[in-house]
């Protein structure tokens, strides 16, 4: 759901693999100048914005000398992954730096229970702010906010100022530790055409209780829809994955385009919060998506992954959260 040559090759391989698997079984414009969010109500999540509340603004980012945004909070997964540490895999979004590019923010703490603005820069080699981004799924940058026990999820599209500063409007966050991932592709410079996922952590003060991850299950109900995930994913391997939509037992055939596709699917590893973006293989043909969509899934490691599937139907954006076990 990219412009880099490596991702294009993977897409072609994934599409061919998906088509073969489906046949065997028989039976996804630039708008970075304006902010609009893509988060939606998800079962068990409490990050809905308070009506009438103005977002609190985080400090202005300083591209040089920005703070790490890290502080310790025990009892929640991912606590050892501090921004800027070299231990995180470049391909899994667990570092704030890769190949000279950096996700920089002066914000280490965000308030709980009210809408908030998170401000940041993306800097390139030489520490200058990057301002030229390629469009990916109708946006120049996607920002994900994920609570480290995977009970909170937001996907928003920040606005970029002329100086390269980004402002993301987040709905109310619950107390705990959150990791913020920025997904982007530079359109020029040394990293032109390469896909980047960089992340930082913030602390939301308050009484935080870790919630156990729901057990792996193939289907989940959300807003009256049943979403069923099928496939045989394997850690480190490219495999086809299908998602089927029903409502009241009836197949759904009226999925509407969202971000240039019929569904947007991201995944986070339950052990270390590694990031994965699953790419759609089903072409868009008006508001007639469903009942089944095909995805190219490449999950880096075995274990449980929490999938967040966003889809639009009936003019409303829905988010289904599914736990998937990867062998």
UniProtKB/TrEMBL annotation:
Residues 1-20 form the signal peptide. Residues 28-42, 52-84 have a biased composition (Low complexity). Coiled coil: none annotated. Residues 28-97 are annotated as: Disordered. Keywords: Signal. Residues 88-97 have a biased composition (Basic and acidic residues). This is Secreted protein. It comes from Actinacidiphila rubida.
């Amino acid at each position: 759901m990219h412009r880099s040559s490596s991702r294009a090759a993977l897409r072609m391989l994934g599409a061919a693999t998906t088509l073969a698997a489906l046949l065997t079984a028989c039976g996804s414009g630039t708008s970075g100048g304006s902010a609009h969010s893509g988060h939606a109500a998800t079962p068990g999540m409490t990050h809905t914005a308070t009506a009438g509340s103005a977002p609190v603004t985080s400090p202005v980012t300083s591209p040089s000398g920005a703070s790490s945004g890290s502080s310790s909070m025990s009892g929640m997964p991912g606590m050892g992954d501090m921004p800027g540490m070299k231990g995180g895999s470049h391909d899994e979004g667990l570092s704030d730096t890769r190949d000279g590019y950096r996700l920089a923010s002066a914000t280490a703490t965000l308030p709980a229970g009210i809408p908030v603005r998170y401000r940041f820069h993306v800097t390139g080699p030489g520490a200058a702010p990057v301002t030229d981004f390629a469009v990916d799924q109708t946006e120049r940058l996607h920002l994900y906010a994920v609570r480290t026990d995977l009970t909170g999820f937001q996907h928003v599209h920040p606005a970029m100022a002329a100086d390269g500063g980004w402002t993301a409007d987040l709905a109310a966050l619950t107390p705990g530790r959150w990791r913020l991932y920025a997904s982007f592709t530079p359109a020029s410079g040394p990293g032109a055409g390469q896909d980047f996922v960089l992340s930082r952590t913030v602390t939301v003060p308050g009484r935080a209780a870790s919630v156990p991850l729901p057990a792996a299950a193939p289907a989940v109900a959300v807003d009256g829809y049943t979403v069923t995930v099928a496939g045989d994913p394997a850690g480190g391997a490219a495999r086809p994955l299908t998602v089927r939509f029903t409502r009241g037992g009836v197949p759904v055939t009226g999925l509407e385009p969202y971000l240039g596709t019929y569904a947007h699917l991201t995944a986070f590893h339950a052990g270390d919060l590694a990031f994965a973006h699953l790419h759609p293989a089903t072409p868009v043909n008006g508001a007639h998506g469903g009942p089944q969509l095909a995805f190219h899934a490449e999950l880096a490691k075995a274990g449980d992954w929490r999938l967040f599937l966003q889809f639009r139907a009936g003019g409303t954006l829905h988010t289904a959260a599914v736990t998937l076990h990867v062998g």
